[in-house]
Design brief:
The structure is a homodimer. Chain A is of the alpha/beta class. The first copy, chain A, has ten helices and eight strands. In chain A, helix 1 (11-25) runs antiparallel to helix 2, helix 4 (78-94) runs parallel beside helix 5 (109-122) and helix 4 (78-94) packs parallel to helix 9.
Chain lengths: 255, 255
């Protein structure tokens, strides 16, 4: 185990990386999940490893939609469980009608149980999706399974770190889709009604605070989604990344 | 195992991803290597998954330096062995005085032997670095080991997919450093005398062709390195990524 000095400028990112590698060794994450994490890391680096204002705005809008929802579901895969089980438990406590459902791209019964166990250990009371019986249309069998008490009947679905095919299938199935994904150009981000383009734990840590803040106001004051929202959020983040790359390229060229 | 349709626009990238995940399951790659691959994927996506002209120029210049070198060494880690063992063997045949040395960030004797075995199976005759006895200054013990017949006495070192600390230590040790790395802003890219900012297998496939082409000309016509080379190569690639992001952001905003 390599020790990471606290003084390292990217200390948190390196710590997360080491923790994820360990979770993969324990079988919680699929190897493909590690590669996906690396892609996210690259985009977070381009965001400056902090939440841009439009991601905060998107999170606030997402929480308003979750508070208004009839049957909201948060979908959890191996990467989400490895990175943010504690945060999932806190979000579940802050939003008692939000159901938590395990949903794996590389599903095996053992790994579904392993992810559920990780969530329960972190304090999540009810975990759906371990023995799913319904199917989402347009996805191959091992990836299409959903829980009849969860995603099948959900009106709003939160999909952190989701694969593009599933994101699109959920949208086609008439769900209101909230994504959390660092890639501003991924198919998941493009498919979402509200794309939160930000790092998962930063978003999840913010959610309980936003819930408390919105609950303290009349719901007429909560932000409202309009069809142009998604495009506006994506364009602003892309613009921000362009500016940052430009800045980095100037810094690099003088070093 | 998920089947990837040949018609998928990112077929090659997905195939590579599946192959690497498999190699990680077999213990050739460390989990951290998979995360690093993901970061590279994100940058390759921004390059349009093809070699930019400045990467071709850098490769040509690198080959000229290798042909002129007294004792050139190609450093191979788990990711390089998993992605490009066959290409390493072809490059070794094209450049008979180039020595191949195993160099691992997460070194265990078993994994060093595993990487060497992968190279030998692909046709590399001599693999250094399996039982290294010398140390590179400024690196912790498990990462500083080098071979006295290889990197210790090398004048030119090629470091594909290398970690920033090692790249900087090699430069400080007076080596002429040629990097192959998709991240135009990584410390490895910044430390290199010749940064080849491109995907490993594309570069390695090109090397034997360039060797043949240069050998057909008098060496006075081969390209020459000058101190401004590295910065120029980096700036051009960054500019290219900026343009591509701008283009993608326009495309995204109309979809």
């Amino acid at each position: 185990m390599t020790l990471i000095p606290r003084s390292h400028p990217r200390y948190r990112s390196l710590l997360t990386r080491a923790a994820l590698a360990q979770k993969a060794r324990e079988g919680l994450l699929a190897p493909e999940g590690l590669i996906a994490h690396g892609r996210g890391e690259a985009f977070d680096y381009l965001l400056g490893e902090r939440s841009p204002p439009e991601a905060r705005e998107a999170t606030r809008l997402a929480v308003a939609c979750l508070l208004r929802a009839r049957c909201p579901v948060l979908s959890v895969n191996g990467n989400v469980a490895a990175l943010a089980s504690k945060q999932v438990a806190k979000v579940a406590r802050a939003l008692p009608h939000l159901r938590i459902e395990v949903n794996l791209f590389h599903r095996t019964p053992a790994r579904a149980e392993r992810v559920a166990e990780e969530l329960r250990r972190a304090g999540v009371r009810e975990v759906l999706g371990v023995h799913p019986t319904a199917r989402l249309r347009g996805l191959p069998s091992d990836r299409g399974w959903v829980d009849t008490r969860g995603i099948l009947r959900a009106d709003v679905v939160v999909i952190p770190l989701e694969d593009g095919d599933r994101a699109e299938a959920l949208r086609r199935a008439g769900k209101f889709v909230i994504s959390i994904d660092l890639n501003p150009l991924s198919r998941t981000t493009l498919a979402a009604h509200i794309p939160i383009i930000d790092e998962l734990t930063r978003v999840m840590n913010r959610v309980p605070l936003v819930v408390r803040d919105l609950r303290a106001r009349p719901s007429t004051q909560w932000p409202r989604w309009v069809p142009s929202t998604a495009q506006r959020l994506r364009s602003r983040t892309l613009q921000r990344i362009l500016e940052r790359l430009d800045e980095l390229s100037r810094a690099g060229s003088t070093s």
